[in-house]
């Protein structure tokens, strides 16, 4: 029984806690809803207090035309609907929310709140729109007055500038004056429509005045420059161009490619068309078009100057060409005349002979092109810029031909040079051979090795081959150079052999003679020197020397240095 009582108590406590939480939650929810309702109430009251009626009263005082009166009635009707129908409807909705709150119908309450917020937004939007349209009317006069004041100030400045520099506007002056009169009439029209409070018309008038004054600003600023370019600069340039064109044509300049006469005529037509537009104050692209014409004239002057400069270069180029042409012609003639003799004296290849023929043909072609150029020049068929281009091409061909001729001349000249060089080397080789023979005779060697005579014979025969080659007609220079190289190598080899042999023989003889002082003292030395002496008379000079040194080194160490000193 005690246990049952305990459990019952627990259950009662839990139920009490649940009830308490429900009460607290409900109270909090109610408080939250009350805050929302209060916020909506405040928003409604703010909308009611918007001074729409005050603003409408301001407009009522301005109503002086049917258009504005219609707008005023529309605004008033819309506000009356809001005031007498929509706001009361919101009040009813708020009362209903209070009732539902007391009943605790939460889901319905939030639905109603949403409807109220939508309704308040619609009211707020409509009132804002009405107020905006009203303010646009009430502020229109002040804004338009400010705009007109600025426009009048700009207008006065423009007119003053025009009056001070009226002569600069020439034939457009009368049109400008008429335009100023039109602007003044539009200012008067502005005052009329402002008095009528026809603000739509005012906007139209202000816009028109703004555009007219902006246009007149362009007119006043640009026409003096336009008149300067069109009435002074361009006519003067046209006159200068025409005079210079006639002068240069008389001086035989070919200027047809520039179409000067036609372009001047078209330019004059263009200027006349431009000024037809200028007279009615249509200045669109006028300044650009006139500057384009001036740029074209500048380009013509540059073309004329180019022709003058090019003519100078062309005439100088003719002189240079003539000089070089004579030089090349002289070389070719000489080569052509000397071909028989060259073929007789030298073994000239067919390739070389063909090159000469080819160069002659090329030279004749260059001269034909040159003759055509001169004909065009005499007939004044081309401008000097074109003539000079052609001359540069022909001159380049002649320069390349001159270069090829120089190379060929060098090649032919090398034949004579090689011949003379071969003759000179032959004398040098013969002299060296003579010196080698003299060395042998002078030193009276006891015996000459057989291999030396072989070398001597080879060298002598090689020299003989050079002599034979030199008397041949035509001379084959390539073969001659080979003969010379061969003979030179053999003679130098012989000379070195001779020098070495004589040196070894002398050293060997000196060593034997030097060693005689030791013959009596040592039998081994005597025997060694005897063997060395035999080798010497057998022509074995190196072996004789080596044996002598090795023999004497026993009694006199380092003897080889003393003997070598003797050779020096």
Structural write-up:
This protein starts with a helix and ends with a helix. The protein has helices at residues 2-48, 52-62, 66-103, 106-164, 173-196, 199-250, 260-279, 286-345, 350-378, 384-443, 450-470, 477-515, 523-537, 541-552, 559-567. The protein folds into four domains: 2-137, no CATH class; 165-284, no CATH class; 306-421, no CATH class; 445-567, no CATH class. α8 (286-345) runs antiparallel to α9 (350-378). The chain is an all-alpha fold and 568 residues long. The longest helix is centred in the middle third of the chain and has 60 residues, at 286-345. 87% of the residues lie in helices and 0% in strands. Residues 20-27 have low confidence and may be disordered.
Q: Tell me, rounded to a whole number, the average pLDDT.
A: 78
Number of domains: 4
Number of helices: 15
Task: Give, in order, the helices and strands.
Answer: HHHHHHHHHHHHHHH
Structure classification:
mainly alpha
Q: Quick one: how many beta strands?
A: 0
Q: Gap between N and C termini, in Å?
A: 154 Å
Large-scale geometry: elongated
Main sheet specs: none
- Uncertain parts: 20-27
The level of helicity is over 70%
Rg estimate, integer Å: 64 Å
In terms of DSSP E residues, the strand content is under 5%
